Amino acid sequence: MRLGADFVSDLNPVQQAAVRHGDGPLLVLAGAGSGKTRVLTYRVAYLIRERHVSPRRILAVTFTNKAAGEMKKRVAALVGGDAGQAWIGTFHSMCARILRREARWGWWTSAFSIFDDSDQTDLVKKSMEKAGVAASAFSARAVLGAISRAKDRLLTAEMYAAEGGGYFEECVAKVYAEYEKGLRVNNALDFDDLIKETVQVFRANPPLLEAYAGRFLHVLVDEYQDTSHAQYALVNLLSGRHRNICVVGDDDQSIYGWRGADITNILDFEHDHPDATVLTLDQNYRSTKRILDAAHDVVSRNARRKEKKLWTEREEGSSVALSRVVNEYDEADAIRDAVLARVTREGRNYHDFAVLYRTHAQSRVIEDSLRRGGIPYDIVGGVRFYERAEVKDVLAYLRVIANPADAVSLERILNVPPRKIGDKSAARLAEAAAARGVPLLDALGVADEIEGLPAAAADSARKLAGMFDRLRKKSEAAPVDELLKDLLEETGYSAWLDGQKTEGSAQRLANVEELVSAATEFVDASGEESLGAFLEQVSLVANIDRWEDRANAVSLMTLHNAKGLEFTVVVIPGLEDGLLPHESAFADDDELEEERRLFYVGMTRAQDELCLLCADTRRRSGLTEMRVPSRFLDEIDASHLSVEETRAPTSWERAPSARTPGRRRARRTDVFPDYEDYSQEQQELSPGARVRHPSWGEGEVLEVSGVGEDTIVRVRFGDGTEKRIMVRYGKLTLSGS
Ligand code: ATP
Ligand code: MG
């Protein structure tokens, strides 16, 4: 739909001023739901329509690929379809694009792989070994985190080493140097490199920078409060020539400090750009008054923030509901009931609801309850599709086809499906490759000549190399989905999964088939057929991007993933000290403030209704813990809350000790009657009961022995295997109830 020339008239006066702002730096610093993203979108459209800026000279950066997709659609609708040339995307996708185009300026080739979390962890482990840092000294995660933070600060391995520090930093410096070598050998970049290398390649090559900075007449950035130092540097480089930089954000919503985001980027914008125009928006268009006030009660407790209070023309709305429940099962059932009641009685749709939790692990019990209640739901992130072992295996094959130097991927599938190349043979092949100074794949091709390699392994290795040759030729001509089907056949991967005949393997095969569908969809939707383009999109898909607005389903995601989104009814479970705020933040005031902002982000996603839940007990690693309501709940003025404390016991528990119904403000100091959770569960764990285990699937209890926490059950699972499981650790749930 092409709108009239006055299309900015559906914005308020300050929003219009932001959209119509002429040249020079512009900061829109404003609270949640005040229309920042809308302003950015309209500004892009305005520049094209009214200022006749060529779309290809506009760069707009969003936080997720999904947000980019929405912005593109919206801009196209506003300008009448002529926005395709504008660069609208995330920092990572934009940088990947630049680095592939400009590969000649760097050490990588345009076929580089993008290493994800698990590739990185593998490489860090190897690098620790090479650097002589014992795996027992530090976890690979901790080391990787430190390397990642260093890259956010644009520090190379040498610069990091020069900074000095304690023993940990010394070790990280050594590992970092090895890790960098590893990336180069594999022709791979990790996520942080995408930004860091782009900054470095621009800094090292002024004419190249000049070409890009000259091209981008306007640079616009959403969610600016969560940019890292490296991203900040990049924005400054790209907007340095024309200085038309427009950033929008909210210091109260900075929630990625733990991942290297630097809140001072937004707080210091005026300092960096003394001539900046600064606009603030204070009208919220999203939430009811009550929700806004409750959210403000919470966030205003933070010391490090710019005070701003939002107002709305919307109605008072209903109170924020706080339900206090017995345990996580009760919590999940309460969520299910709340959804069902509103759908049947109030005519809401499933897609009006979002359940936002602090950690992925909270989702499983909620999912179970929704499933039993027949409620459709979509889970965002969680077990990330592209991180499942079988999906990664198949992608590893594709990556070796695209980038023959990618030894990390090749090693992953050397013996998957099993082809007699065991660990020793794999190590021998890697040694031979290193000794000859050739990629691992080349060593496979000449496996017959490698001493100390068993004949069967050498034979398989040679065949594998031959297969990669054939597939690479195929990849040059055939669309990626066809290539994928051939690959699954030639490698015997599908047949191997199919032959396993277990519940798990059937699921894995389904996932592999899903990947083929993803490739077909990609080819159909983008008109791009190349393997490289497909891999690129797969690598860049962030958690949130797996989420399709399915016709009608409840959305489940972490609070972190909910940024920028809005839902009619928002449910936040787990409001307990230790979860929200997360226990990792207890010791640090800054981190505690970030947790508070996270809660604020969650609350402000709600349009009409906000429901909070906290449980008295929660199970962790098989042990039941007593829980204390979140300290953040105390910060909400009682007049905004309606507290519900009674719930009929579900099948999972015996009636807890008496509790008083009625409305009352929750106090953390309330002490809860303790009760034994295990005994309740064991009542149902009798022979014949159907149970479910996260790895082994459905099964039947054959025998129960032992008492209390030491109860052991013997279970026969779907594939016929029998296991003895200690209930306390076994992660068993009753199914079919
Ligand atoms: P967040 O801080 O959560 O990212 P935001 O400031 O980016 O929020 P938007 O998502 O742009 O806010 O807008 C919030 C909601 O208000 C959207 O549904 C948007 O369409 C609506 N909205 C914004 N401005 C106006 C306006 N002037 N008139 C009507 N609706 C508006
Ligand atoms: Mg926004």
- Uncertain runs with pLDDT below 50, 5 residues or more? 647-683
Roughly how many Å apart are the termini? 50 Å
- Name the hetero compounds present: adenosine-5'-triphosphate, magnesium ion
The CATH superfamily of the largest domain is known as P-loop containing nucleotide triphosphate hydrolases
Mean pLDDT across every amino acid position:
86
**What shape does the CA trace take?**
globular
Q: How many domains would you count in the coordinates?
A: 5
Number of strands: 22
Strand order of the largest sheet: 11-12-10-13-14-9-17
- Helix proportion: 40-55%
Strand content: 5-15%
Q: Indicate the structural class.
A: alpha/beta
Task: Chart the SSEs and their pairings.
Blueprint: H1 13-20, E1 26-29, H2 36-49, E2 58-62, H3 65-79, E3 87-90, H4 91-101, E4 113-115, H5 117-131, H6 140-152, H7 157-163, H8 167-185, E5 188-190, H9 191-204, H10 206-215, E6 218-221, H11 229-239, E7 245-249, H12 264-267, H13 269-272, E8 277-279, H14 289-299, E9 320-325, H15 328-346, E10 353-357, H16 363-372, E11 377-379, H17 389-402, H18 407-413, H19 423-436, H20 440-445, H21 455-477, H22 480-490, H23 493-500, H24 503-526, H25 531-540, E12 554-558, E13 567-572, H26 589-603, E14 606-615, E15 617-620, E16 623-626, H27 631-634, E17 641-644, H28 677-684, E18 690-693, E19 697-705, E20 712-717, E21 722-726, E22 733-734
Helix pairs in contact: 1-2, 2-3, 4-9, 5-6, 5-8, 6-8, 7-8, 9-10, 9-11, 14-26, 15-16, 17-18, 17-21, 21-22, 22-24, 23-24
The structure holds adenosine-5'-triphosphate (ATP) and magnesium ion (MG).
Magnesium ion binds at residues 36-37, 564.
